[in-house]
Structures
1.
Amino acid sequence: MNVRWDAVVDRKAGMKDPRHVAVPCLASPQDSGCIRADVQLFGVLAALSPERRIQLELPPGATIADLLAALGERLGEAILVHVLDPAGKKHRHCRLYVDGYPVEDVNEPVHAKATPTQVEIILLIAPEGG
């Protein structure tokens, strides 16, 4: 990955309902267009979670917000508090990458593909710009 963790600035973010629930995908990913995601947690988030790498399945048309909601359901609200503010916007000190590209808008769609979508989430500490 050729993106510096501190190179992304929160210019736009938000979702209408930060507490909405992601609907699980009930059919096999190959048949239904379900989205498979491999989420990796770094820094403080990794310390808060019993799992550093989480595999999720999301329904077709899911967004980053849906992915985060599914992550919160699996790992608890403590994770989401560090990633999203009360309005559902991504915190400035949180960096989120999807397949190596920085993502700021949690309403962006996650696309189904043959291999799992790679999602990396890190919280920057003060010396790193957090």
Note: The CA atoms of residues 39 and 119 lie 5 Å apart.
2.
Amino acid sequence: MIWPDDDFTGEWIVEWPNGQVKFRSLYLKGKEEGDYLCYWSNGNLAQKGYSQDGECIGIWSDYWEDGTKFKETEYFSPGNYDVRWLNSDGQVEKIEIVRVGQERRTEKLTS
């Protein structure tokens, strides 16, 4: 796959062989800036999030191919984020806490 040039500004779209959009994101001077959307080959959303100056910020959501959300990652700053794993009912099952300079830890919330 060919990625945008280091100074690319605009919308970057890549398609699956069947013509469905695989992902689309916005770039400003070679860095992701704005909404990021990734799709399964069937057209269902696989991931969505937001980037600023090439860094993930806020909440990013991941989905199974059938459209079921299975994970949310909340980015606070580079290297500092929480990953919330969801069960089939959409309830948080466990949280992974990642902080710069600290060991990753997991908190299990359901039995």
Note: The CA atoms of residues 82 and 97 lie 5 Å apart.
3.
Amino acid sequence: MPGSNPLVSVVIPLYNAAPFIGEALASIYGEGHPALDVIVVDDGSTDGSLAVAEERFPGIRAIRQDRAGIGAARNRGIAMAEGELLAFLDADDLWPAGRLAPLLAALAKLEGPGMAFGHVRHFLSPGLAPQNRSRFRCPPAPAPGYCAGAMVTHLADFRRVGPFEEDLRVGEFIGWLARARDLGLASKLVNAVVLERRIHGANQTVREREAFADYALMLKRSLDRRRQQA
């Protein structure tokens, strides 16, 4: 069970997010938890994103790699993590103030390996051009968020499940979560907003739209794994 202020490693995959990374990092350090290990993995950015991050927040641990995808970037950061607990944030999203407290409390109540999730609130990026705002639907209310950015887990439990599948350009967290549940990791959903997801027109799901077949591949792998276990 974690102590009152356990070290939390936060892994941020970064790809061409120079307009957003400063605000994302500020939201982490402004969250209120006193023990943070922030790891930013630049996945081949060409817009100077990592320089922006390092200039504004020199205390981060920064890694550069050739473009390999979000799964590979997260895995690289996880390999360097030193915290008792593990959390994630995409470079264009935000943590609301105080988001870790309810997640850590929920995680502490679980008996055995587990994960804590919270709710996600979507918002249209203030920099989105007026003519583009009508193109995007922003859900009006927070919703349960079973995604990397809304989760906290023990680093040891994550490593027990194993790394993200790096050949999946989308759906890598869904695949990981399926494996975690197959291994018996419990999950707890807290009734609090723990992630603010920015809608700006160049989100990962938009950039990688042609890779949506990866969802079918991920589902097939999950079904094959369960058949083998049966």
Note: The chain is about 35% helix and 25% strand.
4.
Amino acid sequence: MAVYLITLHAYRSWGPDKSRGFVRKGLGIQPPSEELARMYDGQAGDDPVNFSPELQRVLIAGAYDICTRRDWWLRAVGTDPTHGHFLISQSGFMDWEAVRDKLKNILSLFLGRATGQPGRSWFVALGSRKHVKDQQHFDYLVATYLPDQRGLFRKKGDALPEIPAGIL
């Protein structure tokens, strides 16, 4: 069974001016740069995204809906104002990039409906994943790592968060 922890970061949530540095594709972690932050801000198409508790509920309910319709299993979700972690499994092979892209695309639709802002950028260009290699790693994610995020948490068997009708 393929199990992945897919992380989707909020659009413009970690810019070059962060004191801990920032990540550039292909270059890894870079030192902070105020000049680069100003350049990125000038080129941005939308304002930065912050996932409020209301939007975190949409992320959780939306991810559950997306997985259910595709015969994937949403094992757990941990959210934060700047990102969401989605622990997803499927029998057999699972192309994590296709799962990430489908999550981003449809969650963007749901977030647009929830806020009345269709078509805006909700997530950074890509996203990351970790392959869950064994039961110990899985148990750690569900029992410790995901619940310790700064936002909402849901694991398989927990009630889904309530969101307004018409979003999913």
Note: The helical segments are 34-43, 53-69, 96-115, 135-145.
